[in-house]
Structures are given as C-alpha cells and as structure tokens.
Amino acid sequence: MLTSLYVRHFAVVEEAEITFGPGLTVVSGETGAGKSLLVDALMLLAGSRADSGMVRAGSDRAELAAEFDLGDLPEARAWLQREELDDEGACQLRRVIRTEGSSRAWINGRPANASQLGELATLLVEIHGQHEHQALLSRAHQMTLLDAYAGHEDTLAQVRELASQWRELGARIRALSGGDDRDRRLELLRHEVGELEKWALPAADLAELETSHKRLANAGRLAEGASGVVELIDGDSEFALRRALGRAHAELTRLAALDERLNPLLELVDNAGIQLGEASDDLARYAQDVDLDPERFAQVDAHLTRLHELGRRHRLPPAELHDKLQAMREELAELEGAGEALEALAAKQARLQGEYATAAEQLSRQRLAAAERLGNEVSALMGELGMAGGVLRIELEAAASDEPDPQGRERCELLVSANPGQPPRPLRKVASGGELARISLAIEVATLGKDSVGTMVFDEVDTGIGGAVAEVVGQKLRALGATRQVLCVTHLPQVAAQGHAHLRVSKHSDEASTHTRIETLDAAGRRAELARMLGGVEITQATRAHAKQMLERAQAD
C-alpha cells in the first residue's frame, strides 16, 4: 500500500508531501490545476521515461519519492530480497530528474535503473490512466486477464513446463538426425578424435614433455657447463677451489695448534672439502650422462609443435586439449549411437506430448468455464456503467499449430457489443475510448482480488459519463477500495463523494509565478469541493445542500 508521496519542483508543484491511507482516495480540482500530476509522479517512479519539461521553471531538478507498506505484498518483499535491495521491510522509491533531461533513481537508498523500478512497480501499483486501458486491445493481455481471473496458475505452469521440455527434446532430436550435416560432423569428429588421441596429453605428461624438450634442446650447453664447473672445483689450476681449500686447511691446522678455539672452524673447512669433492664427482658423471640425442629431441620438438598447432585450431591452450578429447569422444559416441538415442528421445517426446495433451485439455476446460463466468459478470457490470444491453463475450479459438505451446491450445479474443441487437465484434475494432475505460473498470471489479497488487490508480476513467452512471462508477471504485487501496482522479462529484478520503488540487498565480497546492480535505472541505463540482461558477445554498446530501448518502453505504 502507498503510504506517502513527496514531490518537489515537479511541473507546477513547488513542494508537496501527501499521506495516503487504505480504501478509496479521490483527487479533484479545477481543470488545469494539475490533478493528474500525482499519477504522473507515480508513473515516473515506476520507471517511465523522464522529460526535462517536468522540472519546475527556475529549478535545476525535480525530486520524487514514494513509500510503500509491504505488509500484504510478499512478492514485492521477495523481489527486493532477490535483488539485494531490501531494508528491513521498508520500500522507498526515489527519482531525481534534471533540467538537461538526465535522471537518477534509488530503491531503499541504493542506486537503481529504470528497468528495476519498472519491475518492482508492477508488484506495487497498477495504473489505469487515460490511455493505459489501451492494453485491453492486446490479445496477449486479454489471455493474461482471463488466466488471472480463472486462478489456474498450477495448470498453466504445468502446461508451460511440459511444452518447454517437449521443445528441448525436439531440438536434441533434430541435432542427432541432421542428415548430411550429421554425416559431415561424424567424419570430422572421427578425424579430430584420432589426432587428439595421438598427440594430446594429460597435464602431468605434458609438463614432463616440456621439461624433456628444454633439457634436450640445451644438452650440449649442459654438458659443457658441467665440465667447466668440475674444472673450477677440481682442476690443475692453482685457483681451483679444492686446491685453495687445501691450502686454507693446512694453515688453519697450524693455527688451531696454537688456539683450540679454532678447531670447530677447522671441522667446517673439512666438511666443505668433502662436499666440494662430492659435487665435483657428481658433476663429472652428469656431464658424461647428458643425453645428446638429436633424434629424440626431434621427436619431442615435433610433438610439442603439433600440440601448439592443434591448440590454435581448437582455440585452446595445449594443456586443455586432453579434456577436449574427452568431450569429443562423448559427442562421437552419442552420434554413433544416434539410432538408439533417437528411439529413446522419440519415446520420451511422445510421452511428454501425451502428458501435455492431458494438461492442455484441462487448461482449456478451465479457461472455457472462466470465460463464460467473466463474460457474464462484465456484461452485467457494463449495463450498470451506462452501456445498457452491452455484452462482452470471451471467445477461445484454437491455436494455429498443433505442437505443444507454452500458452496452451487456444488464443483469446474479447468480443463486445455496445448496443442491443448488434453482434459482438472484436474489442479492438469497435470500442471507443470511453467504452474501453468503462470496460476496463468493469473487468477490474469482476476480477477483484485476483491479483496481488496493493494499489490501483484510475486517472479520469469516468470521462464521458455522468448522472446515475457516474454514481455507479463511484460505487464500484469504492467496492474496489474495500480490499485494495484505490486512487482515483475525477471531475465528477458522484465519484468524488464515494471516496474514503479526498485530496483537492488547486492552482494559485501571482505576477511572478504559478503554484499548485495539494491538500487533504476534512468534512467541511469535502462538502465545499463537491458543491464547487456541482455548481460551477455560482454556488447556491441549494447546491451546498445537494453536496451535503450526496456526501452523506455515499458515506453511509
């Protein structure tokens, strides 16, 4: 439920904060005062396209904010949690529009885009503006309305799931029975698998091959380098390490005879001599054993070269070619065993088609029954809303294809006859704007409680009617307000009298600027406003008495 709306520097409104309660809240005011600005503000907070013309003249930006109570809106709470925009059950939408046309939006203080605003708003508020009822002309929207009225969500979900599974199986069957494409794919897979089986290596084996390649490529340098180090350690030169260490050992032995504290150091020199000897022997053996095998190097080099070529072809690092081989083996096995696989898939698809047929038939029966009930209810309401003798019929016709369809086996068309004796024709071809508005209202009343949106907004849907019909429209809106929060912008006193609360929008001008004020009316204010709506320029005592009587009668119901 919408609890508050704040606007600042928006169109002709300098600043206003409005608090809303449950039930029907009506909004009235002189023509041109800006009654629809509240609806415009909500639409912008619902993600509508922003326009710099919405910023009040002389200001650099317009600010809009709305707060909602989510107590009875579990889907909205779940959406906020899923998007990580929840804030302990709060829901605040805020949007700033700048004079250059840019805008920014926030949900619970966190930045959001227009798409997110739109998704959340569909769970919070439903707006029936002077043009929004044009959605009734869409056949897809008509089917959505019928399904919402019927309340068969489980059956519809089952139909959609079975149709989706059937189509997925069909795609797999087409892939496996691809004719010439399949034969070409088989030939290519066999060739690629053969090459990868010959060359691809597991990660550990590839690492060992690369190490071997590096060693073989540098075998001559390794042997020569090892021999050179042996010469440095144990050569005939007086600068060889072991000769120099021997002289150091002899000198340290003489010194240790003079001071026994040098004995530990003498022991370290002894150990160094032993280690140098072992290193020299091992290096000599290494130099002799280095694998100088040009033929082996050529084999290893060719293997690595081929791996890199295959990596470029498959657009993979050589280390991932072994995994690619396994995937291609599985695909090859599946294609080679396509006969058995196709039989299994075809059997599964036939079973799914049977299950779909059962579910779709049940959905069709439910839709047919709901279409008759909804048509009768809306037809009766149309008579009450000034379309006496009018009939709305919901026709279900078979879909063009026999294949399982996620939407079921039929399509929906709303047919209307606005005058007695005239055959019903498609709504999109015969209904005027005023008729569409009243049919929209009739459908909302007929489907009362069938959706989870907490706030419904009607922007002058009572255009083109008056008298007793206007009073009925007000009564229907008040009935909606018994279970939903309803906001209605109206110019009819018969509708305004039915509100549980009443907002008046007024415009005031001076030489410098024009201001719009929005105020909540008390009982006296409501009587005065109804009298203005009834009496026009001159308000008489009789007009005031009529307004009082109208308000008392409406509020007594």
Unreliable stretches, pLDDT < 50, 5 or more residues? none
Task: Give the biggest beta sheet.
Answer: 6 strands, antiparallel
**Rg over CA atoms:** 43 Å
Give the averaged pLDDT, no decimals: 86
Shape estimate: elongated
Number of strands: 15
What order do the strands of the largest sheet run in, or round the barrel if closed?
2-1-4-5-6-7
Q: In DSSP terms, counting alpha (H) and pi (I) runs of 4 or more, how many helices?
A: 19
Q: How widely separated are the two ends?
A: 23 Å
Topology at a glance:
Elements: E1 2-10, E2 13-19, E3 24-29, H1 37-45, E4 61-68, H2 74-82, E5 92-98, E6 103-107, E7 110-112, H3 114-124, E8 125-128, H4 139-150, H5 153-176, H6 180-199, H7 203-217, H8 219-234, H9 241-258, H10 263-289, H11 294-314, H12 321-336, H13 338-384, E9 391-398, E10 410-417, E11 425-426, H14 427-430, H15 433-446, E12 455-459, H16 467-481, E13 485-489, H17 493-496, E14 501-509, E15 514-520, H18 523-535, H19 541-556
Parallel strand pairs: 3-13, 3-14, 8-12, 12-13
Antiparallel strand pairs: 1-2, 1-4, 4-5, 5-6, 6-7, 9-10, 10-11, 14-15
Helix pairs in contact: 4-13, 5-13, 6-12, 7-11, 8-10, 9-10, 13-15, 15-16, 18-19
Defining traits:
single chain, 6-stranded antiparallel β-sheet, alpha/beta, elongated, 557 residues, 6-stranded mixed β-sheet
Describe the structure.
The chain is an alpha/beta fold and 557 residues long. The chain has helices spanning 37-45, 74-82, 114-124, 139-150, 153-176, 180-199, 203-217, 219-234, 241-258, 263-289, 294-314, 321-336, 338-384, 427-430, 433-446, 467-481, 493-496, 523-535, 541-556, and strands at residues 2-10, 13-19, 24-29, 61-68, 92-98, 103-107, 110-112, 125-128, 391-398, 410-417, 425-426, 455-459, 485-489, 501-509, 514-520. The strands form 3 sheets. Strands 2-1-4-5-6-7 form a 6-stranded antiparallel beta sheet, with helices on one face. β10 and β11 form a beta hairpin. The longest helix has 47 residues, at 338-384. The mean pLDDT is 86.
